[in-house]
Amino acid sequence: MEIASGYIGFAQYVGYFWHGMGRAETRMVCFGVGAAVIVLLYRGVTAVGRLTVVLWVGMLVTVFFIIGSGFLNFHSKVAFDFPPNDLKMAAYVTAKGVEIGKAMGAKTVTGNSRKGPYTVTQYQTTHNTGGTVLGDNPKTSTVNRYLQSWDVPNVFVIGASNYPQNASWNPTGTLGALTYWAIDALKNKYLKNPGRLVSA
Ligand SMILES: Cc1cc2nc3c(=O)[nH]c(=O)nc-3n(C[C@H](O)[C@H](O)[C@H](O)COP(=O)(O)OP(=O)(O)OC[C@H]3O[C@@H](n4cnc5c(N)ncnc54)[C@H](O)[C@@H]3O)c2cc1C
Q1: Ligand 1 pocket: which of 129, 156, 170 to mutate (most atoms <8 Å of CB)?
Q2: pLDDT band at 53, cuts 50/70/90?
Q3: In this structure, which residue's CA is closest to atom 4 in ligand 1?
């Protein structure tokens, strides 16, 4: 298993250079590497043992090099704070959000862009969303408006994972409403006529 996953890993790295590499090509590379390894290792067990020690030392040197360079290049501000570009992105999307809100005719529109520095003393967010987003296009969403999987019609996915974005306020009320909405569709539409509830 370990050796096979090594071949697969090697083939995946090759994919960085061989653009558009498909399944058949990946298998071909795996097979080629496998055959090369067998040919190269077809020698006395003592020689294989020596080779293993050399590779092991090489691995240790690489690991210590990576750990060492990590320490030498460590910047706490990058690791624990918002980089300037994050703040710029936050300002940009906030301004866009305000623009959209105004265009939709909302009575009150306020934009409060995220500011640095990062601090654990203020509430940041515990509203994790996204992952199986709902939408009207199977190419850009996982579930349809009834939270039914586009790919597997007898799977309904319900949760904050359905949100395609993170609205700034509490998500769980809407999530409850979406749940009732999906269960209603499941009971009154799907069970009567199992299959895709939305054609796309
Ligand atoms: C500290 C905190 C405060 C919050 N306060 C608010 C608030 O005031 N107002 C608000 O609207 N929202 C609040 N939220 C957000 C709210 O809790 C979530 O939006 C909501 O719980 C999401 O519901 P969910 O069903 O998508 O996921 P969850 O409630 O996380 O449910 C997922 C469930 O799946 C289970 N699970 C995970 N993996 C597996 C597995 N492999 N097999 C089986 N089960 C699995 C988990 O155990 C869990 O029970 C808060 C969240 C936190 C953490």
Answers
A1: 170
A2: very high
A3: 126
Q: Is 127 a catalytic residue?
A: yes
CB 180 within 8 A of CB 147: no
- 189 close to 197: Cβ distance less than 8 angstroms: yes
Closest CA to 78 of 89, 86, 88: 86
SS3 149: strand
pLDDT in tens, 82-104: 888 999 999 999 999 999 999 99
**pTM of the shown model:** 0.58
Q: Which of 21, 91, 97, 127 is catalytic?
A: 127
Q: Which residues' Cβ are closer than 6 Å to ligand 1?
A: 126-127, 159-161, 170-172, 175
d(CA 60, CA 9): 19
CA of 178 to the centre of ligand 1 (A): 15
CB 117 within 8 A of CB 87: no
Question: What are the pLDDT digits (tens) for 162-175?
Answer: 999 887 788 999 99
Helices in the chain by DSSP H: which ranges? 2-17, 23-40, 45-72, 76-80, 84-103, 172-185
Please tell me the distance from the alpha carbon of residue 122 to that of residue 192, in angstroms, as a whole number: 50
Domain range summary for the chain, segments of one domain joined by +: 2-76, 77-124, 125-200
pLDDT at 108 (0 to 100): 93
